[in-house]
Prior knowledge:
Largest sheet: 3 strands, mixed
Oligomer: single chain
Shape: elongated
Strand content: 15-25%
Strand order of the largest sheet: 2-1-3
Order of helices and strands: EHEHE
Low-confidence stretches: none
Number of helices: 2
Radius of gyration: 13 Å
Amino acid sequence: MNILIEGHTDDIGTKDHNLLLSQKRAEEVSKYLQQKGIESSRLKSIGYGETKAAITNDSEKTRAANRRVEFKIYY
Length: 75
């Protein structure tokens, strides 16, 4: 089993900044999982920035929901 770690951001800031931030967010989760004993070869991190918003970014509450990390399990 492998894990794809997807980082996301809200739409505040530049697209380039958000892309980098989301990548760093995903990589930090990957580091945490490695510290817990999951082999790095089973993990892949990718940042999507603001491109895959879960909901609209029209309030602080919804922007907060878009600042997230998601996992996809694959074999």
